[in-house]
């Protein structure tokens, strides 16, 4: 299945969920404004891509799980842009949700996108225990043991000189766990052995780390047109970043070394189970800087 076909399945799952909902039209408009804002859809795409790489036929239920993950991510972006957080006016090249609809509606749209995914997974045509495990792991990746905790640590780290270990802890939670979730979800759906589940999760964690390092590098090197949001926001907020700690060249090297580790782990998994790694490696390679 081609990439666009996979992404079309995810879009269809999102449209089906919100299309028939009879609720406040202003909330629906705000939610869909951010859902339709574009973006790479890397998290849901990875989930479906890894499933196919393991020779699991993709079904609408899998697209619903992928869509649920994208809903959480989108809600986090709405809240991340709020004045009380990163205070940004643009996201993905257009006005942020609170600039378009006001702060109160943006908060509520984010709330909806944090809660609706669990209903979407619950409705999926999958065995009950698999759905319970998917919901539990998505909650752990998103809430006070994952993304939300990472955001708190990130805010507390402003104007501080953090160590590399402290910075990695922040981003392992803020960014890494939602990027590791596609791999966890696939392991659950495919009912892999615990050892393989752990290795797949590690691949996701490494990709999540590299993704954040790359984001930090782009924040200081890319233009608004290239990244679709205000550049050098981390610099203005006096945040510790990988370029600040390692230097620009050091951060680029660290990003690429982390991606090397992810590819090595993929190869390990391919030695144990039928696993077509080429498409996943292609995604990994797309994250390289100057590579």
UniProtKB/TrEMBL annotation:
Cofactor(s) required for function per UniProt: Mg(2+)
InterPro entries: Isoprenoid_synthase_dom_sf, Polyprenyl_synt, Polyprenyl_synt_CS, Prenyl_diphosphate_synthase
Enzyme class: transferase
Record keywords, A-Z: Isoprene biosynthesis, Magnesium, Metal-binding, Transferase
Catalysed conversion reaction: isopentenyl diphosphate + (2E)-geranyl diphosphate = (2E,6E)-farnesyl diphosphate + diphosphate
PROSITE patterns: POLYPRENYL_SYNTHASE_1 (PS00723), POLYPRENYL_SYNTHASE_2 (PS00444)
GO cellular component: cytoplasm
One of the protein's GO biological processes: terpenoid biosynthetic process
EC number: 2.5.1.10
Keyword Protein biosynthesis: no
Entries under CDD domains matching the protein: Trans_IPPS_HT
Family: Belongs to the FPP/GGPP synthase family.
Protein known as: Farnesyl diphosphate synthase
């Amino acid at each position: 299945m081609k990439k666009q076909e996979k992404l079309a399945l995810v879009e269809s799952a999102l449209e089906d969920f919100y299309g028939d909902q009879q609720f406040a039209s202003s909330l629906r408009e705000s939610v869909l404004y951010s859902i339709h804002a574009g973006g790479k859809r890397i998290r849901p795409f990875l989930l479906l891509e890894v499933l196919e790489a393991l020779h699991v036929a993709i079904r609408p239920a899998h697209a619903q799980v992928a869509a649920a993950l994208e809903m959480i991510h989108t809600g986090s972006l709405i809240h991340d842009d709020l004045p009380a957080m990163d205070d940004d006016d643009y996201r993905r090249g257009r006005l942020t949700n609170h600039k378009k609809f006001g702060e109160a509606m943006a908060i509520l749209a984010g709330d909806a996108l944090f809660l609706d995914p669990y209903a979407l997974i619950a409705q999926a045509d999958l065995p009950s225990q698999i759905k319970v495990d998917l919901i539990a792991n998505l909650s752990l990746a998103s809430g006070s043991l994952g993304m939300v905790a990472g955001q708190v640590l990130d805010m507390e780290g402003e104007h501080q000189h953090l160590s590399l270990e402290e910075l990695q802890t922040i981003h392992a939670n803020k960014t890494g766990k939602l990027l590791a979730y596609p791999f966890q979800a696939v392991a659950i759906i495919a009912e892999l052995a615990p050892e393989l589940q752990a290795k797949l999760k590690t691949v996701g964690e490494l990709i999540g780390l590299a993704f954040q390092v790359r984001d930090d590098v782009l924040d200081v090197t890319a233009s608004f047109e290239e990244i679709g949001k205000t550049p050098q926001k981390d610099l203005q907020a006096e945040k510790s970043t990988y370029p600040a700690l390692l230097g620009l060249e050091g951060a680029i090297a660290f990003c690429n070394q982390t991606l090397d580790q992810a590819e090595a782990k993929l190869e390990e998994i391919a030695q144990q189970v039928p696993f077509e790694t080429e498409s996943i490696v292609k995604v990994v390679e797309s994250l390289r800087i100057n590579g």
